[in-house]
Every structure is written in structure tokens, then in C-alpha cells.
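Technical appendix A lists one of the benchmark inputs used to test multi-chain prediction within the project. The record comprises two sequence entries:
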Amino acid sequence: MASGAPRTTSSSAGYAKGQMRREQIVEAAVAAYADLGYHGASLRKIAKRVGISHAGLIYYFPTREALLAAVLERRDVEDAARGGLPQSPGLGVLRHLLDVAAHNQDHPAIVELYARLAAEAITPGHPAHGYFTRHYRQVRGYAAASFAALAEAGQLRDGVDPETAAAALIALMDGLQVQWLTDPGEVDLVGPLRLFLQQVLLVPVDQPQ
Amino acid sequence: MASGAPRTTSSSAGYAKGQMRREQIVEAAVAAYADLGYHGASLRKIAKRVGISHAGLIYYFPTREALLAAVLERRDVEDAARGGLPQSPGLGVLRHLLDVAAHNQDHPAIVELYARLAAEAITPGHPAHGYFTRHYRQVRGYAAASFAALAEAGQLRDGVDPETAAAALIALMDGLQVQWLTDPGEVDLVGPLRLFLQQVLLVPVDQPQ
């Protein structure tokens, strides 16, 4: 830390320490799911990796599902940072989603975690229900605003409703993941997405080289 | 049974009786999931509804997941029968899938069962993994043959690969279900499907009145 950094009060220092510990736990959970699989990575094993007690972990994440949702939230931040999610809606956002899908093909463990937890969390009251409700609304919102901006620019095919196209795009990403996880040789995560985008857009989906 | 029906040997009579019992169990399971929800309908409760012992039920369906897969197989048969799945691939098959999606909107219990089990069954060795592998290959196959027939008739947009479009269509149906179950007011199961089909086809998706 730079010597000129402001001195923190003890309560904000406690907050910062808590945040750091949360981050450590989420990082350990990401690694544990990648190494041990969805069913192998128990809270106890994750606590051991962080070097805290099971009770200590429970203080931060009362359930396994709450920790899983935190892992997915962190992944959303990483996905947005990698390659750079454009600040304003438009073609760049849709291309970014294609890049996320391509990245997912090399990261089956997190794709599996997402697909399993999304299906479990459909029930209100599930610890990850809030995460998925927000996540879906947010990505549908980005995508809908992007389709609307393209329509405005005359780059969306006539008759394509931006909100309907947004729900379709996100559904396509998610549904492909389940087919791909079930039968990896038969389906890929990118081709059908690119097909959909190319059919609704009047501009090339792929980046000019 | 007509008096002229052939007399069965005792082993085929036993087989028929076993089939009937299986059918009874699957029917009771369908009703139990609709009444009690995914987590409420235990094997014990289902056995009670059929009037057999828990051990008797286990003889037919060794795990809860195997019974759930049988419920979904039966639903596939019902979906194909309702409205009539056309014998030959083409526009009729795609319209049939739209009808299935519309029917699903009034049957959230079975949609929930399908979405949850699909995500759980991605692992080889899960009792429903075989069902989902077959199911996906079969519906993708029907859909791909239908897009190919439309391409042959000059009714598919240029550049649309039938197999890619098929994977996309099934992914779209499945992904929409999870969004719809998570946040029912925000998404519908039919609109995005119709949008996709209308974008890739050069003929109207909706039946002429």
C-alpha cells in the first residue's frame, strides 16, 4: 500500500478485512470446483483450502448455494473485464457475448456450476434465486438495449423486437450449455449463437480482421 | 378385451402386467409432481398413491431419477400424440414444437421437472443421463431433418445450416424455460421461438387460418 494511503478507522478496516476474506473464500471455491467437481467441493474442503474453520466459512456464506452464487457473481465481473464489455449498448455487447461463449468452451467446470445452479435456483427462496433473477434481468437488459441501438441505426432486421431477441439470445446461450455438457461432441457453444445473431442483424457479426 | 384375442403365455402375461404396473407408477408420479412439487413428491408418497410398498416401487424404478426420466419419456409420447407430430420432417414439425412450447406455458410442474433433471443429468452415470442424451439427439435430429427439407424446398434462408439451426431451436426452448421458471412475468416460452423460426424461414411460421 502506498505510504500516502488514508488511514482507515477500525470499522472500515474490519470491513476491508471481511471483504478480503470473502474474496479468498470465493477464490478457493472457484479452484475447488475446478479440481473436485460440483459434488466433490464441500464447504468443509473449501474452508480447509482457505485455512479457516467450517464455522468461520459459514459466517461469510451460510449455505453452499450462497457461496456458489458468489462464485458466479465474481465470474460475471471477470467476463465483463476480459476483452472489455463496451460501456454503451450496441454491436460490441453482442460480440462480447460471443466471446464469453467461446471462452466458456474451455471452462466446463464453471459452465457446469452455472447450469446446475440456474435450474436449482428457479424456486423463490433458494439462496441463489436472487442472483439468477438479477443476472437474467441484467443480461437481457444489456442485450435488449443493444438490439434497440442497432434497430435505431437501421442494422436490425425488420420485425425483430429487441426484448424478444434479447430473451432469445440469453436462452440460446444457456440451453446450448446443457446440451453441450450432456453430449459434448454433438453441440458447440458458439455456432448456433453466431447463426442467430447473423440472422437478426443486417451487419456482419464477426469483427473485421 | 375381445373374446378372439390370442391367449398369452404366462411369461408374456407377466410382462404385460409389469408394463401396466410401470404405467400406473408413472401416472401416479405425474400427478404427485403436479400436486406436491419437485421436492415434495418422494418415492414413498408415490408408492402410497399406487397402493404398493416402497420396495415394490423400487423393483420397477430403483431411483427417484429413473422414475423422473420415465415421466419425461411418457410426456414426450404425449407431446407427439397431441395435435399429431407429422410423420415426415418439414414445417409441420417446427410448428409442432411451437405448439409444445405453448402447451408448456400451462404446465409449469412438468417444465420444472424437465429443467431441473436436465441440469442434474449432465453427468454420465446419472440415472437420467441416457434419457437426455437420447432425447436431445432425437429432437435435434427431427429439427435438423425439417430444416434440411425446408432448405431443399427453397424455404430456408441462405447460409442457415440445418444442424446448427436445430441445436439452436432446442437450446432456445430449454433456455427459455429456465428464465421463465425463474421470473415468470418477464419472459414467455413462445415469442422468442417464433422470432427465431421466422428469421430463418422464408415461409410464414404461423398456420394459415
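The radius of gyration of chain A is 20 Å. Chain A is about 70% helix and 0% strand. Comparable benchmark entries are summarised in Table A2.
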